[in-house]
Amino acid sequence: MVNGYAVEAKGLRKAFGEVTALDGLSLAVPAGTVLGLLGPNGSGKTTTVSILATSLRPDAGRATVAGLDVVTDAARVRRVIGLAGQFAAVDPNLTGRENLRLIGRLSRLGRRQARARAGELLDSFGLNRAADRLVRGYSGGMRRRLDVAAALLHRPAVLFLDEPTTGLDPESRFALWDSVRGLASSGTTVLLTTQYLEEADALADQVVIISAGRVAGTGTPAELKERLGTAVFHLDFAGQEAAQAAEAALASAGYVVQRDGAGIQVRSAAGSGELTGMLRALNGRGPDPVSVAIREPTLDDVFLSLTRGSEAA
Amino acid sequence: MSTIAAAPRRAAASRVAVAARAVADAISDTADVAWRNLLTQLRTPQALVFSVIQPVIFVLLFRYAFGGAIHVPGTNYVDFLMPGIFAQTVAFGAVGTAVGLSGDLRTGILVRFRTLPMARIAVLAGRTAADLARNLLVVAVMIGVGFAAGFHSPHGAAALLAALALVIAFGYAISWGFASLGLRVSDPEAAQAAAVPVLFLLVFTSAAFVPSTAMPGWLQAFGTHQPVDALVNAERALILGGPAAHDVLISLAWSGGMLVVFALLAARIYARMGR
Asked: CA of B126, closest CA in chain A: separation in Å?
């Protein structure tokens, strides 16, 4: 592994006919960490994962997994990766156990090993009781867990999870999060795509935000939030006119203000202490707020500001 | 000296060992995929039942509804008909290959297979092997149906078995042709809609149900130069008696040629998926 990166992609491009899915995407995942690839529908997340997992070829650019080129060394890459897809790629007409044994054998585990690993994974994913039922009778959450289990049969060093919790109920979602955390703590490198900022925040050491096939921002969840300030203030006023007056007063004092009806939102890099300064700026020149709320910025704030920026450019 | 001479020999031996290993892996993967496809078919018996019902209806229609109006000199119509039914049965069985692969494409199982360290050819070879097994089953049922409708294979069991071997070989070859279609269409219903007209054309312009001599010349020109017609003629030569070697060779040539061309085509499409 070069530079300690388990996954490295440089300048990936991929077009489907007229549609550009990836437009020079680069990223790197240090071994043993979790990278969250965050972006809206159609931003290129699945395309990125498909290329890294060798099922799609890039038009341009290079990518390596465990130091192996995903195009020229695809056969060896397949021995060290696991992929669980957005659309649970398990066979509905086989039982959970049959699915795992089949995929285990096709992962070159050998008959006995495949049987043993299938049993272990059914156990650790809480599918023991459903193991010998046909998958077509599984709930969405059970299917997804089986899908992830299927990706882990040959103990891959690098695991790709493409929107692993999309469409899952909260309970199944948290259970899957726990599994991912467990894998990460045992040294597996994980690249997961998600539309949920909360999920990236909860799981990822490093977040790459993509939009229209390009990287729009990257950093730890904390760094990304830092970039948007450390506090977000919500000030509510008695009415729209009062809010407009306050908006003008705050803007002239140098604050970046967003107004929505009778509410005002202000971001600050200086933390919650900034509230004193804001109230001073309003004093005499604007009305007093009816209520004040302070919260930490979420990845939603980061995401919206970054993707808006890239659209403007 | 001896160590210097031994080195390239060892290298060659290890290359042979690697190749042998790859072949053994490919066979084992094919068996695993075929097993999965057979289990899947057994657990969705509707498709299996309909693949039997259709040829049964054809036997009933042609034996009893149209048969009286079709005169084939020198033989019973039902003895003439059954070779056509066998050919039709396996030809339409190839729709299952297209539909099955198309379904795997849609559900995403092919994406999983493509990211596993398995032999690539196993996805296709396992599918066509399972469809071959299904053809064996359906053809066996059709023999029973034929006997019940008065078919009596005038030239004996050995001739009948030889004819059925040709039928199965043809079914395997055409199944590879429809594998390519399944890999291109990610909607099983569209795959079926695309496959059926082609098969209708091949089966109904052949001599499967009526002698080609009853067709106009331009249709005969097409109908008598295609694999279903070659198969039906070879079957009849064996089952009804007469000089069979020529027709059998032509049918085998068609099946062998189709197998090579279609298998290469399907393997190439599979290998190039994702480009």
From this structure: 12
What is the Cα–Cα distance from A271 to A275, expressed in whole angstroms? 8
Query: Contacts by A98-101 with C-beta closer than 8 Å and gap 24+?
Result: A98/B36, A98/B39, A99/A135, A99/A146, A99/A150, A100/A146, A100/A149, A100/A150, A100/A153
Distances (CA, A) of B151 to B85, B138, B148, B158: 12, 17, 7, 15
- Going from the C-alpha of B70 to that of each of A272, B174, B233, B264, the distances in angstroms are 95, 29, 18, 41
Q: How far is B88 from chain A (nearest CA, A)?
A: 28
Q: Is the pLDDT of residue A312 over 50?
A: no
> For residue B69, which amino acid is it?
A
- B contact test, residue of A47, A55, A77 with most B CBs within 10 A: A55
Residue A71 per-residue DSSP state: T
Are residues A247 and A240 in contact, defined by beta-carbon separation less than 8 angstroms?
no
Question: Nearest Cβ partner of B32 from A79, A85, A105?
Answer: A105
What tens digit of pLDDT does each residue of A238-288 get? 889 889 988 888 888 888 888 888 899 888 777 777 888 888 888 877 788
Question: Could you report the per-residue pLDDT of B159-215, keeping only the tens digit for each?
Answer: 999 999 999 999 999 999 999 999 998 888 999 999 999 999 999 999 999 888 888
Chain A residue numbers touching B39 (CB-CB < 8 A):
93-94, 98
pLDDT one-digit tens code per residue, A286-303:
788 889 888 877 777 777
CATH number among 1.10.1840.10, 1.20.1250.20, 3.40.50.300, 1.10.443.10, domain A2-225: 3.40.50.300
Q: Which of residues 48-77 of A touch B (CB under 8 A)?
A: 50, 53-57, 75
Determine the angle formed by the axes of helices B121-148 and B45-60, rounding to 10 degrees. 40
> How would residue A117 be classed by pLDDT, with cut points 50, 70 and 90?
very high
For the structural domain made of A229-296, what CATH number should be given? 3.30.70.270
Q: Does B120 lie at the interface with A, CB-CB under 8 angstroms?
A: no
- Domain holding B203, by residue range, is 2-272
Domain residue extents for chain A:
2-225, 229-296
Query: Has the ipTM of the complex gone over 0.85?
Result: yes
Helix (H) or strand (E) holding B64: none
Tokens 């955390």 found at: A181
Candidates A50, A81, A91; nearest CB to B36: A91
Total structural domains within chain B: 1
Structure tokens at B190: 């569209």
For residue B216, give how far its alpha carbon lies from the nearest alpha carbon of chain A (Å).
45
Residue with tokens 């059926």, as numbered in its chain:
B196
